[in-house]
Amino acid sequence: MTEPQDGAELCFPQLLNASCSRPAASWSASVCLRFLLSSVSALTVLLNLLVIVSVSHFRQLHTPTNLLLLSLAVSDFLVGLVFIPGEIYRRTSCWLLGDLMCSLYSYVATVSVAASVGNMVLISADRYVAICDPLLYPGTVTVARTKFLIFLCWLSSNLYRSLSLKDIGFHKANYVPCRGECVFVVDFVAGVFDVALSFVFPVSAIVVLHMRVFVVAVSQARSMRSHVTAVTLQHSVTLTSRRSELKAARTLGVVVLVFLLCFCPYYTVSLAGVNLIRTSYGIFVLCLFCCNSCVNPVIYALFYPWFRRAVKLIVTLQILQPGSREANVLWRG
């Protein structure tokens, strides 16, 4: 609770001791936080919206991998549209929307973050099968199965958050609520359980899958290099394949590193409690956490040539033309 202090401006002056004090951050810090997170929010919404429109509109992009990218873009879009603006509002001003809107905001924000992590796990599993079992991939990973897994990801995120939110609220024994703030109070045991299910286990799965992919990619590259013949064409094809696989392995490593750098500090601070999350360091890790949803479409989509071609068709409004859904965006015509 933000206890009213002598001389402090109250959110609801007429309620006296029942009202919270306005956030104590300086004007410059408040403006800086608003500008930084607003920029991240706008960029997150824009980039993920481009991914959503691209994959949804063009039939040629309706593949299992791209459907996972679409699901990830939807969850990150919600992070940029709901989570980040909500954090800006409740950290820089009094919460005037009431407990119901606070609960709704908390639910949508946590579900979108959980779905984003779940989609990362699915994408890691998809790339693991594609690289480690390429012959089995077409028959194992189908569009129908991918849609079902995406449905399970969102369903489990909603169910878990619905169950966990029943024990989380504004009336804890060690927390006395006041009017004018939106605080999500979690006790230590529940916090550890939440971090384990929503962070430790998913991140462990992602790291293990990507490490396996990296090992297989390097092994395949070495194997092809050892079978280089004197034929110039064969030599060229082999070197090209080797460079492509090593580049893919490095990209996977970057993905894991960025994800860990964005998520680890935030969950560490969140587990430490409300007091630390309100410090300047807590605000920094919050910004870092929010940036992950902005970076995701960059590292998962902007590296694909089809995305750049799709964006060009979207920006020039060519997608409004009849038959644009059948446009060839995978190869240059």
TrEMBL record:
Membrane-spanning ranges: 35-55, 67-84, 104-123, 135-157, 195-218, 251-269, 281-303
Subcellular location: Cell membrane
Keyword Membrane: yes
Keywords in alphabetical order: Cell membrane, G-protein coupled receptor, Membrane, Receptor, Transducer, Transmembrane, Transmembrane helix
UniProt key word Transmembrane: yes
Membrane topology: Multi-pass membrane protein
Domain of life of the organism encoding this protein: Eukaryota
Pfam families linked to this entry: 7tm_1
PROSITE patterns per record: G_PROTEIN_RECEP_F1_1 (PS00237), G_PROTEIN_RECEP_F1_2 (PS50262)
GO molecular function: trace-amine receptor activity
GO CC list: plasma membrane
Ranges for domain G-protein coupled receptors family 1 profile: 47-300
Family named by the database record: Belongs to the G-protein coupled receptor 1 family.
Protein name: Trace amine-associated receptor 13c-like
Species, as recorded: Betta splendens
